[in-house]
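Repro:
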Amino acid sequence: MIAALALRSLRHRRATAALTVLSIALSVFLLLAIERLREEAREGFAATVSGTDLIVGARTSGVHLLLATVFHAGEAGSGLRWSSYRALAGHPAVAWTVPLTLGDSHRGFRVVGTDRGFFEHYRYGRALALSIASGTIFAGPREAVLGAETARRLGYAPGSDLILAHGSGDDGFMPHADRPFRVSGILAPTGTPVDRTVLVGLEDIDALHAPERIAQTDDPLAAALMAAEPSAEASRTITAFLVGLRTRPSALSMQREVNTFPDEPLTAILPAATLQEVWALVGVAEQALRAVSIMAVVVGLAGMLVALLTGIAERRREMAILRSVGARPSQVFALVAGEAAALAMAGVIVGAVVLHVALPLARPWLASRIGLVVGGVWPSVLEWQLMALVFVAGSLVGILPAWRLYRHSVADGLSIRT
């Protein structure tokens, strides 16, 4: 009987009830959406280079090496010798390697010198591979593959010409105007730093820098040899290289071998572990997002409390009539508290349904624009817990107005002063 009366009362006040449910639903939607995006952002950040076991570069801090090679933030620093790269690439525990050369740019976008192995072995997100949206991977000399954002912002298409320059970011100088590159392909969006790069062949980078090495020597014979073999191991360097191991358990032992490499000082990092270090540096923003979502729920519940308290004066006569026909005070209390619980439950359900209907629709946009690969739509354990907490909090909010109506007597309800 109490449940039926509660539903009829809410139906009678359907406009107020609908607005209350809407405010709770919006707050629940925001809470669950921020929590889902926060978790996906953490997982996506940790999987920026999900298929790489080690990143090796010249001796430096792990965070600096990661930021320079993966996120292209800051200067890359000194490089490592090609002979060291070849020695480590031939290690029995190594399955594949991808060399990287940084230091050049094109109109504010970083240029990455690499080989075709980059497109075969680089993984991001949940082990997703790079794919070409248009054109082909570079195959001939002075061809470039552009990231999706680079092509979009500069208006390039396969067949366009571009000129590389020394330096990074907007500070590029000394353009190689005599050696233009042609765009051979454009990558599909990934939401990773790869979208903001210009990928060219490692041999092309060496050819661009060969005149510099020739100018630095006074020996005509050495200059002639360098001009004939610009990629000779004696002078060739790279910035870093990615490593894929035959077995994951060998990562720590391989890392120790690289860090104690006798030929030159090197640093090897485990990308997943170093990414967690970087994420810890931006943990304040993560907590701020959670605080915003919690405040949204508090505001929604506060709105429900205000609506219930505002209706007390109007409902005192209704409750007094129920008391006069035999309703006990506990039943009056249960009626008002049940209405609050019903409103909270409806708000939680509506908010959760809207979120899990919107997620599949927003998944392509999230993946292409901000690199968030959203998983299944079924709520996680944490989301079930959050919804349960919101329901309990909404039910508790109804105790105050229920208690105030509980204390009113029949005589007080029938003689409300105006």
